[in-house]
Amino acid sequence: MATDGTALIHLDGVTKVFYTDEIETHALSGIHLEIRPGEYIAIAGPSGCGKSTLLSILGLLDSPSGGEYRLKTQPVAQLSLSERTRIRNREIGFIFQAFNLIGDLNVYENVELPLTYRGMSSAERRKRVQEVLERVGMAHRMKHYPSQLSGGQQQRVAVARALVGQPAILLADEPTGNLDSKNGEAVMELLNQLHHEGATICMVTHDTRYAGCAERTVHLFDGRVVEETAAAGQQAVQA
Amino acid sequence: MWQAMAQDLRYAARTLLKNPGFSLVAVLMLALGIGANTAIFSIVNAVLLRPLPYPNPDRIVVLHETSRGGWGSVSAPNYLDWKAQSSSFDSMAVYRVGGLNLTGKFAPQRVESAEVSEGFFEAFGMQPVAGRLFTDQEWKPGGPDVAVIAEGTWRGVFGGDPGLIGKPVELSGVLYTVVGVVPESDAYPSTARVWLPNHLDSPFARNRDTHFLGCVGRLKAGVGVEQARAELATIAQRLQKQYPETNRGRGIRVTPMLEQRVAYIRPALVVLLAAVGFVLLIACANVANLLLARAIGRHREMAVRAALGAGRRRIVRQLLTENGLLALLGAAAGLALAEAAVAGLPAIIPRGMLPRTGGITIDARVLAFTLLAGTLTALLFGLAPAIAAARVDPYAGMQLGGGRATQSKLLARMRHALMVTEVALATLLLVGGGLLIRTLGALLHVNPGFDAAHVQTAEIYLPKMTPAEVPKNLDRVDQITARLAQLPGAEAASTAALLPLSGYNINSDVQIEGRPVEDVTQRPMVEMRFIGPQFFRVFQIPLVQGREFEAQDNDRSHLVTVINRHMARHFWGEESPIGRHIAFTNVNNTPEWMEVVGVCNDVHTFGLGDDVRDEAYIPFRQQRAEDISYLSGEIPVEFVIRTKGAPEALTSAIPEVVKAEDASMPVSRIESMSALLDDSLARQRFAARLLGAFGILALLLAGVGIYAVMAYLVTERTHEMGVRMALGAEPGDVLRLVLSTGMRLALVGVFAGLSGALAAGRLLANQLFGVTATDPATFACVAGALAMTAALACAIPASRAARVAPLVALRYE
Question: Which of A19, A172, B139, B792 has the largest CB neighbor count within 10 A?
Fold first, then answer.
């Protein structure tokens, strides 16, 4: 894949090794990946292939053992914990498989949560939360608690929470993994819609049907990129 | 059924052994709570609940005369009228306590004694263990000198010699024939070891206005206390009419003896029992919290049991068996702790603070209490967690994470409620302890009105004497005083009939020169304090006006007095009382006028927390010989010596000085005035220490409880913390979140506790001095201490939460 200065995310030879007692596990080996602004990419592969490890590195939840990771051209290896937290809060929106909504907070408060860590005024927070809830079609459930919502609705709220900070990229970890097919498709439809509105999305999935929604799919196996495929009308790349 | 129970018990034992850490902590907490309760209950049992050691003890009553809203001793003529005119009693008797010097082929020793009137032993139903009680002949005036002694003295001093019966022993210089021995446990008054017949033939006994006798009675079978009260009220009214000069306004108070002996200490013991009950409740809350946390961990096990057909009741029973076993172990360990505490109690309970302390032991009633406490404890800490744990959906429970959220929420609410409760209880206890500590502090800051430092005191009792022998005996006292003043290290020496803060007093109605003579029942009362020359110098009590007593103020000179400032203000306002005269009525009802020659500063003679009363100091040598001859052997002579260095330096020299004057005269007590001052605060110090200790124990338990709840909360919410970190929360944000959650709960508890303390304040009000039950400083300090403890207890889980890696957000159970 050609490298140019416009890449939002640039991974060059990224490796991740886990050490358990005396056992060395290579979760990722020499990953090269670029994600451009506005791109919708899927990372696919069987269980244990390193998808989630890659996502955690992309989301600055974990650090690579080797190689280079640049976000918006800035190398992230030397960032302090505090700077990583700030970037995570402002540049990255997470959508988790298990929704990870906080049970004690209502829908509004869950979506507002990332903004509270920015020191944003409450008026601004309210405006943004209302906008984003309307965008995902959950404004009418603002006062509800997660336990009062269906799985599909919870994931919509989780998407709203990921969007509210206006991040540079949405990272979705198996976003349909906890949903039935009908709700799963609805969430995928929502992601498609967001993509068409300009959002950059990186989604981890093991479901080839949903991977097909992305413009490009990176296939991982044993911690390596073994194939890249493009959706119809896109250019396919063989790793 | 029994088989199932045995199975439950086996499984419960296995479960507890499988989690030794949990079991040990839970048993330890319960042991502390149950042990402390058992120890305090053993005091309550011995003091308040144990029946008196006499046959039909509920029929024994104590009688007092009432006057001017108070009650006190009885005059002999009134007693004789009560006895003659009442029909409610099987027997009624009077007594007066005193002390005698027991001498013989052993070192002289002081024994407490009681001169008792006919019917005394019958009132208690006492039976001799050797010999006999007094005969009719011996009760009569002019009868032989006979004595009944206590079994302890018989065995301890005379080796239990049966041959002692019928033989004489020397008591304060007089030979008394021992006629019988009574069990020591029956002793009344409890400190008495020798009983002599009281013939009621002294001049005092003929005076209806001299009230100096204790009175007891045994009600006839079937006669209630109320019935006796009604009868005696009628008699009192009759006597008022018959003797208006002495009996106007005088009534009769009838109180069951047990009530009379323990009523004053009951509120303090109830507060103590409540305090230690709170400690147990806090321990229960902690154990309940541990069980609730464990219930989450055992959720799947319960689901499996439910899926296999166990009903909710069956699961609750299984869990209650486990909790019951825990409580049983806690009770057993608590009983062991209580045994040790009870053994150590005599050393920590201040002398004379509690009646009937000899019976403090772990008896059947205490054991039953421990068993009850253990059972209630098991229900208290075990029932809610058991029911909550049994509310399990067998299907959802076996799914990964399924059903747990709902159950967690319920259990979390329970844990939070328990945490709030224990913080509230700890707050209540700390406020109580704090108020008592502030009371003690306030008392320690009270200026007693004298300088206790560098004052040594020694007590002797003069032998019984005739009026003719009085001057000779008082000369001996003067000679001893003069020799004490010459001791190396002594600056001055004096004498007194009673020491300040001794707890004893002598008072009398007084007439004031130039004022109309009021009826005796309406005259003001003034405390009388008999002292020798140099007394004010020894105690450094400043004279405001006039002079101190001198050696020439004796039985040959005109009568003089020094009054305290309080009395001077009371009767003369801003005018000088010097040269004025006051009169106390003597035994013949004749006023004896004395000139006020000085005014001294006020002294807190009754207690540092008690109000100063009108006091008149009278020269020791101006007491009437008739009075002394009757009172000798009962009112002690106190020597007081001002020393240049430590008062204790004179401790060994004082008995030598006394012995040189009279080898048969024991020094019954030598103690520095500072120690006596300390002793006067022993009750307050004991209460403050005990309640303070319970408060600190409660604080520690509450701290542990808060820590346990917050630690569990962090463990339970680790994933949420990870999600928050993933969404951009800084470690500080998470730290604040956990701290604020814990502090919010703790502050709710503190608020509830302070509200409770406001409401319960009146229970302590009568034990406070210099501080109100709503003292803002105490409340603020307690709130601060609880808040700090809560912050510390939350800090460790909070810092652990702040270290949660955001990566856990990606983990899915």
Answer: A172
- Do B387 and B515 fall into the same domain? no
Residue B589 lies in a domain: yes
Beta-bridge mates of residue B194: B113, B149
pLDDT digits (tens, 9 = 90+) for B339-371: 999 888 877 787 777 777 777 888 999 999 988
Answer whether B724 touches A (CB < 8 Å). yes
Same-domain check for residues B530 and B652: yes
B216 and B353 inside one domain: no
> Is the CB of A206 inside 8 Å of chain B's CB atoms?
no
- Do B495 and B529 sit in the same domain of this protein? yes
CA–CA separation, A199 vs A164, rounded Å? 12
Assigned domain for B418 exists: no
Q: Does A109 touch chain B (CB under 8 A)?
A: no
Say whether both B312 and B244 belong to one domain: no
**Co-location of B277 and B383 in the same domain:** yes
Q: Spell out which residues of chain B touch residue A81, defining contact as CB-CB under 8 Å.
A: 731
b or e along B355-388 (b: 16 or more beta carbons within 10 Å of the residue's beta carbon)?
A: bbbeebebeeebeebbeebbeebbbbbbebbbbb
Q: Roughly what angle, to the nearest 10 degrees, separates helices B682-716 and B266-297?
A: 10
In chain A, the largest separation of any two C-alpha atoms, in whole Å, equals 54
pLDDT, tens digit, for every residue of B746-780? Answer: 999 999 999 999 988 877 888 888 899 999 999 99
Superfamily grouping for domain A38-62+80-230: P-loop containing nucleotide triphosphate hydrolases (3.40.50.300)
Q: Tell me the pLDDT tens digit for each residue of A150-208.
A: 989 999 999 999 999 999 999 999 998 888 888 888 889 989 999 998 899 999 988 88
Sorted by sequence, the CB contacts under 8 Å of residue B153 that are 6+ apart come out as: B102, B111, B184, B193, B194
Provide the number of CB pairs (under 8 Å) joining chain A to chain B.
62
Nearest Cα neighbor of B791 from B723, B726, B720, B742 is B742
Q: Which structural domain range is residue B532 located in?
A: 462-664
Q: Searching chain B, which residue's CA lies closest to the CA of residue A61?
A: B807
Tell whether A117 is within 8 A of chain B (Cβ).
yes
Whether the CB-CB separation of B661 and B483 falls below 8 Å is answered with yes
In a domain, B398, yes or no: yes
Measured in angstroms, the CA of B414 and the nearest CA of chain A are apart by 16
Contact call for A55 and B810, based on CB within 8 A:
yes
| Domain-ending residue, one of B664, B686, B712 | B664
Per the structure, how many domains does chain B have? 3
Range 77-96 of A in CB contact (< 8 A) with B: 81-82, 85-86, 88-90, 94, 96
- ipTM of the predicted assembly exceeds 0.95: no
Q: Which of A58, A85, A176 to mutate to test the interface with B (most CBs of B within 10 A)?
A: A85
Handedness of CA A61, A65, A68, A74 (dihedral sign): positive
d(CA B388, CA B392): 8
Q: Which residues contact B494 (CB under 8 A, 6 or more apart)?
A: B481, B531, B532, B533, B534, B535, B537, B538, B639, B640, B641
What are the sequence ranges of the domains in chain A?
A: 38-62+80-230
Q: With an 8 Å Cβ cutoff, are B728 and A62 in contact? A: no
CA distance B352 to B409: 54
Crossing angle of helices B266-297 and B731-765, rounded to 10°: 150
The domain boundary residue, chosen from B629, B664, B699: B664
The shortest CB-CB distance from A94 to any of B409, B727, B813 is to B727
- What's the confidence (pLDDT) of residue A103? 83
The residue type at B783: A
C-beta atoms of A86 and B728 within 8 A: yes
Fill in the amino acid letter for B86: S
pLDDT reading at B167 higher than 60: yes
